[in-house]
Amino acid sequence: MGRAAGTGSENDDPAPASVVSRACYLIARMSSRVIRLLPRSLCLWGGNRVADVALVLARTYRANAMANFRQVLGPDAPAEEVRRTAHEAFRTSVQNMIDLLRFQRLTPAALARTIGVGEDHWSVIAAALSQGRGLILLTGHLGAFDSLSQLPAGRGYPMTVVLGRTLPRPIFDAAVALRQAHGMTVIEATPLGVRSLIEALRRGECVGFLGDRDFFGNGTLVEFFGRRTTLPSGAVRLARETGAPILAAYLRRTPTGYDLLLEEPFCVARTAHRNADVAAGMDRVVASLTRAVAATPGQWAMFQPVWPADDASANSASRCASSS
């Protein structure tokens, strides 16, 4: 189900099979051709205007984002600051979409150069992979996370990414096809995908996870920004099962480009106490996500509720996960 890393060729057409999904994909390809002809500054200006309109029209996404940022910014944050941060998040999301279209014809190696990945970054990844157990690349919906997931192919490292579907099926399929154009494999977040991930790690490859959204509501109960919720523990559980190290990585946007942050890789212990092992691993994941979101909250492009309506809901979800 994967594609050879490093091609970036438009002749290897990854378009989805369904008629509607293929139409969405072809529209995106045509948009990509137009965007590539325009100056980056003009694309960003136009993208910001699109985000301004989306902030007004996408009421549900706006409400979800503002609810999330009320938690992140704290109870004393003024309402205007919460709204301004949500506005920034909308702009970040549109900029990510523009990047996805602008970078279509770049090879993975050229993309890495455009992002500014240096030898110091590659050395961290190479050292983690040298153990022969693969590498779990963990990030969140933060900054240019789409571009981040495509970087390992720039060094010839096969990459499999796990995504949860938050868009209508045709748009999601088209977006997956665009992402796979750079040689990575995309697996929708379902229980059936776990075996493929284990096999990729055992081949010594990279696997990517987004750790800040519990798509199935069956994650591990944690405290995130001072309030209980559930976050997905798949990356930690896979790390415990396979011995693969976890590398938290974030690609932040700057006024002039991008800033890639790689944290210190860590391994998850495998003792007789599975729940304790997972909890310890999740503590490190939550700490990393908290640092990253707090540093640039306006780049957290999260438009689904991260925290439940009440703590009882989080407790219930956690009990279901523990009993499964």
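Second entry:
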Amino acid sequence: MFRKETFLKNVFSIFLIFPFFISLDFLITKIHGVRGFSQFFEEDENVGYINKRNFKARFGGPLDEFTNVVTLNKYGVRESSPSPCTNKINGIIIGDSVVAGFEVNDNETYVSIINKKCIKELLFINGGVRAHDTHMSMANIKRLIKEYGLKEEELKIIYILSVNDFYENDDKFRYSSLKSKFGSVYDGDFFKPYRNPFINRLRIFIGDNFYFLTRSILLLEEFKRIRNEKIFANIQDNNLSNQSNDFRCKRAISIVNKYFLEKSKINNIFIGFSPMFLNPQALDESVNYEKCLRRNSLDSKKITVIPFSEEIKSLIPKGKDPSYLTFKRDFHLNLQGHRLASKALEKIIMEQILFD
């Protein structure tokens, strides 16, 4: 039976307790030095947004499976341990959050590990930026070449594409939080998706100052997103057809050609697919995506699709669930994942990229 007095008492108790928890949240956020998500990025008119230049801060907090310091140089590039053999930059590894590797320390990303191995005196820039799609990744290559003053014809460029890119490449408003604050590029044009300015500023303020409240909001949004995507998948295409796969692969290849290769002196760009490690089936699907990209790049003289997912799959012990390579809740690569990815990429560089 509903009792008005009990209900009002509970509501009153919540109003008394809530300010205490908010104050405690603010205090813990400042003590731990946790930075708001948006503080790691800045606007760039040619790319939309990039990693923040000359920035160093802690990424992750008490409720995350990681908490480490991220160091970004004056170009907005993730710092790593110096290469033991060369200081001459002659390669770029481009991509999104998996390449950036904010979830591990500066010297633990697979780009950093590759640089430490000094493979035939190759030194790669870590061009990973969270939530970049193919449009933004190609624009970021141009930016890095220009700002570093690199010679296109001498560069080895590797683009590690993620499954998110397939959807974002044709949906300019997907993942609009960062894009609405800083901007994005789509088919070469700069734009900002519209979001209510008041709500945007409020979200940023909460994200910068209240870690636990932010985590709660993100968990709710993630739950809604997963639920909606499951509903959409059941209605439209529970199992993606070869035709829809080919369309997405063809679109990604066409963006690479349009943005970059047709008017550049780059000899070749190597494209790999970032594996999905949720389960063995997801890893198999990653290999299929890579084959799809290869099929649709046969007419592109400057594009070579490398067997990144396939090589990683071959390195995982038979019968072992590949999810051990990612964090349990976050699904980005953990230290084991980055180490395995570096082994796979090292083999590809030695056997394929160096002989291009």
